[in-house]
Amino acid sequence: MNQETLKKYAHTLLKYGVNLQKDQTLVISVDVENKDFAVIVTEEAYGLGAKEVVLNWRCSPIARQRLLHAKESVLERPANWIPEFYKQYIDDKAAFLSLISANPKALEGIPTNRISLQSRNLNKALSFYHTAIMNSSVTWCVASVPTVLWADLLGYEGTDEEKIEQLWATLLKLCRIEGVEPKDTYRHHMAKLRHRCEALNKLDLKALRYTCKNGTDLLLELPEGHIWLGGEESSKDGTIFNANIPTEEVFSAPQYNGVNGIVYSTKPLIYQGNTISDFSFTFKEGKIVDYTAKEGYEVLKELIETDEGSHYLGEVALVDHFSPISQSNHIFYETLFDENASCHLAIGASYPTCLKNSDGLSEEELKERGLNYSLTHVDFMIGDEHMNIKGYTRDGQEVDIMIDGRLQV
Ligand code: ZN
Ligand code: ZN
Is the pLDDT of residue 184 over 90? Predict the structure, then answer.
C-alpha cells in the first residue's frame, strides 16, 4: 500500500480513533511483524504534537513458547512492572492504540489451564486498566493491520507482498478510509450511527425478543436508564473518540438478571488463541445454565468459569446484516471485524457508560441498577439474514427492530 494512504489511515486512527491531543502520551500495542506501520503511526503522532510515543511490542510465537514452557509460578504472578507500566500511563492520561491482526490458532494445543492461569491473574493485576477502558476514563482505539497469516485465512493468493496488499485494500475499504462511495465515508457513517442511537434511546425499550431460523429464541430485558452508544463517544473529560475502527454496531447493557431463553452462535469465536464454533447458551434469569459447542468446548468452559460475572451478559449490540463487513462474505477470525458483521452479545462486564448517571457508582451500585461486572468481556456473534428482533417499550408498544437481518431503526 502506498505511503500516502497508510499515513491517511494512521492519521484517522490518531485523530478520530484515540483523538490524540497535543502534549499527550500515546501508547501503541502492536506485533513486531507490523513494525513498519508502527513507525508511520509514531511519525504521525509526533506530527500531531505527542508528548511521547511508547511501544508495547507483542510477538505471538514468543508468547506461545512462554505459555508452553515457562514456570507455572510466573504465569500465576505477573511481574510487578506490568501493572506499573499501565498505571504510569493511565495516571498520565495517555491515549491507548491497539493494532491487531487475526491469529485464530496462536495458542492452539496449549493446555487451557495454563492459558487461563495466566489470563486470570493478568486480568486481576490489570483490573484498574480494564476499568479505565470500560468507563472511558482514557481514550482508546482498537484497529487492524494486515499479516500474511491473516491474508492466507481469507484465501488471498500470490506473493506475500501481493497478499498483504490485497488485505490492506480490504481493511481500508471496510474502515471506510479508501475505495468508498462519497455518501459512505467515515464521517457519514459516524453520523448514521449517531442517528440510530438517538432513535433507539427515544424508544426507551424495556426488552428485546430475538428469534431466528437456527432456533434462537431469547427475551432480553434492558435496565431502566440504559443508553445506546455507537460510533463516536465521549471520554470522562469530554474528548470525542472512537474505540473501534471499523465499527458498525450500536450497543447497550442488558439487565444482567433479565435474560431468558436460548441463543445459537452464527460465527466462530476466537478466544485466547483458540477457536470455539457452533455453540449455544441457555439462560435463566440472566445466568448461563447450559451451553454446548461442537468445537472448543473446553475453552468455552474456561471462559464461562472465569468468575461469577462471566455466567451473565454484559453487552447487547445491534448490527445490520447488510453492513459492508457482512457483505464481504468473509469470516475474519478476529472479533473486531466479525462482531461488526453480526448482531452480538458479550459475556462478562458491561460498559458503565451505557447507563444514565452512572459516573462514580461502585460495582455493587451498578449491579443494583442492572449492570453486570466481571474480569472478562467477550463478544460472540448471533446474527444472520434470518434474525428478527422485536422491541417492547416501557409504555407497552411493540416495535420492529430487525426484520430478516435488516435493522428498522
Ligand atoms: Zn460489541
Ligand atoms: Zn464487546
Answer: no
Three cell numbers written together for 380: 460472540
- Compute, in degrees rounded to 10, the torsion defined by CA atoms 212, 217, 223, 226: -10
Q: What is the pLDDT of residues 212-254, one digit of tens each?
A: 999 999 999 999 999 999 999 999 999 999 999 999 999 999 9
pLDDT at 207 over 90: yes
d(CA 50, CA 26): 7
Sign of CA dihedral 383, 385, 386, 387: positive
Distance 378 CA to ligand 2 centre (A): 6
Whether the predicted pLDDT of 329 surpasses 90: no
Q: What is the pLDDT of residue 131?
A: 92
Do 55 and 98 form a contact (C-beta atoms < 8 A)?
A: no
* Ligand 2 centroid from CA 354, angstroms: 12
Work out the percent of the chain whose per-residue pLDDT is above 90. Answer: 93
Could you count the other beta carbons within 10 Å of the beta carbon of residue 405? 21
Mean pLDDT of 25-38: 97
Cβ neighbour number for residue 395 with a 10 Å cutoff? 8
pLDDT confidence of residue 334: 92
Residues 6+ apart with CB under 8 A from 265: 276, 277, 278, 279, 280, 380, 381, 382
Ligand 2 center–CA 344 separation, angstroms: 8
Alpha helix ranges (H) inside 175-304: 186-203, 297-304
Q: Is the pLDDT of residue 323 over 90?
A: no
3-state helix, strand, coil in the chain (%, to 5): 35, 25, 35
Burial label, 141 (beta-carbon count in 10 A; 0-12, 13-18, 19+): buried
Distance of alpha carbon 378 from alpha carbon 298, whole angstroms: 16
Grid cell at residue 336: 473486531
- Find out whether 267 and 341 touch, Cβ atoms under 8 Å: yes
- The residues placing their C-beta within 5 Å of ligand 2, an ion, are 315, 346, 379
Three-state DSSP state, 223: coil
Please state, in angstroms and as integers, the Cα–Cα distance from residue 406 to each residue in 251, 375, 384, following that order.
16, 33, 9
